[in-house]
Structure formats: C-alpha cells, structure tokens
Amino acid sequence: MAEAKIALSTLLTLLTVVLLLLDVSTSTALTEEVNPCTNLPPFTETDRDLIAFPLNLEFLEAEFFLFGAYGYGLDVQAPYLAAGGPPPVGGQKAQLDPLTNDLVAQMGLQEVGHVRESLGPDAFPRPLLNIGEATWATILNSAFRRPLDPPFNPYVNSINYMLASYTIPYVGLTGYVGTNPQLLGSGAKRLVAGLLGVEAGQDAIIRTWLYERRDQIVEPYGFTVAEATDAISKLRNLDHNGLVALAGAPVPYVIDDEGLVVPIEVGAERQTTGNILSADVNSLSYARTPEQILPIVYSSGDPRVPGGFYPLGARGRIAERYHKYGSD
C-alpha cells in the first residue's frame, strides 16, 4: 500500500512537471509581458515580419519530409496548420531504407512543430508549393549545367532523396542566422534560437549521412555524392548572387555555401578537405537575408521572379515587397 502511494505521488509529480513544461514551451512567447529592462514587448512588429518570412521555408520542409516518409503532408498530419492554403503539388512517398525513412520522419514531425510555433498573429496560409519530380529535375539540371538523363527524381531511392534534402534546411538555417541580429524582443530571440538549433541539427544529420557516402556514385549519372553537393552549393551561391552578377553591378560575389569536400584552404583551420559543416573561415555559420534566399528557392536568381518550389511566390510582407503572392 505504501509503495502504491509512493508510485502515485511520483506519477502526480511527473505529470505536474510535464504540464508545467508544456505550458512554458507553448505559451511563454505569447503571454510574456513587456521586458522592464528594454521596455519592449516580446515580439515587436518588425520581429513578427522577420519571423513570418521563414514560415514559407518551414512549410516547404514540413511537406517534403512528411511526404517522403509517410506519403502525405500537413493536410493529413495537421490540417489546421495549412490554414486553408492550397495543397502542395507533386509530393510522394520516397523509396527509402528503414533508417533513412526514420530520420526523415523525425525531421518531418519536427517541422510540424516549427510551423505551429511560427503561426503567430502575422502568419499566413500555406503558399502553393511544388515539390514534384520536375521541380527537382530542373534544380539538378541547373546545378550540373546540363540535362540529366533520366531526369533526377528524389523519390526513387535514399541517395537521391537525401541529396534533395541537402538543398532545404541549410537555406533556412542561414536565414535564421541572418535574422537573429535584427530581432528586438526577447520572445522573438528565444523562438528563433530554438528554431535555428533544430534546423542546424537537421542540416548536420543530412550532411553526415551524405559524407559517409561522399565517394559513392549516384547512378546512373556517374558523379559522386560529394560532386553533387558541390554542384548544388555552387548553384545556391550563383542564385544568391545571380541578380547582381548578371546585372554587372559592382557587388562582390559572396560565398556562403560549400559542399562536403573542399580545397584544403577552405577547410576548417586550412587543415582538412572534409567539410561536414558549411561555415566561414572561423567556422561560424553563414547568414543570408530574405533578398538572398528568395532567388534560391525560386530557382530564378531574382527575388522578383517566383518559380521553383513557389510557383506563385512566397507569402508575407517581406516576401511580397519583391513579388505579390499570386500575381503575374
């Protein structure tokens, strides 16, 4: 009887702790009062705009990972989060080995939480997303500057899927690094720090998975996994700089993306060619602005020209400074 009382007491204590943690994790950002030291609310109006922009990317990641692991996306997993936005185009269950499927499933479920936490007063419905085979084929054709035959399809095996995954969380990661210094409210800083931590973890998992297979040939194309990551990273650098480079503006070409194997002078402390994480000369994460992210995810090199994953453009006040969602 005494043991039963102790067990019941312990259970009640654990339940109390869990409830307290749930309350802290889900409500503090919304209920926190003005910071007496700064006289600022937890989220300023600018903060809300800055956090709303990467919601576009969180939607993309959630849909791609959920479809890859389960064969369905937010409309089944958490339909209320789509907020009436159109269903994504082209998502499908990937043919993954059990371990890779487990990793992708975990990342997909993590992204559900990211979308939920990012849906604040200034959030918007899910934008139209295209994650179909043709979109990925176009990206890889651009990366290798030639049509791949057969067209690249991320859903046919684990290697292809993880190479496609290589293109996504890192862009969000660099966006959060770029956003962080501009945030004013303590709630906004806490939220972005939490989002950034998990995005960085996802990117590290994907890069580690691929690094273990860096010398493996991607069939039937003949290039290695490492060569594919290098091509994708160079394309993202080009798209990042494309508008100014093509216009001939006097703006230096900026490198903020690196593949899995680099020249030794680019590796950490100039002592390794392995590049398990993409970082600058001091091994600090690169940063990107919305103006630099949009050309990448649009696959256009221009923040004013939607396409790629976002046929109608991205949503939110920041994205729509360059192109109004759904307009011609």
Automatic annotation (TrEMBL):
<protein>
    <recommendedName>
        <fullName>Desiccation-related protein PCC13-62</fullName>
    </recommendedName>
</protein>
<dbReference type="InterPro" id="IPR052965">
    <property type="entry name" value="Pigment-catalase-like"/>
</dbReference>
<dbReference type="Pfam" id="PF13668">
    <property type="entry name" value="Ferritin_2"/>
</dbReference>
<feature type="signal peptide">
    <location>
        <begin position="1"/>
        <end position="29"/>
    </location>
</feature>
<keyword id="KW-0732">Signal</keyword>
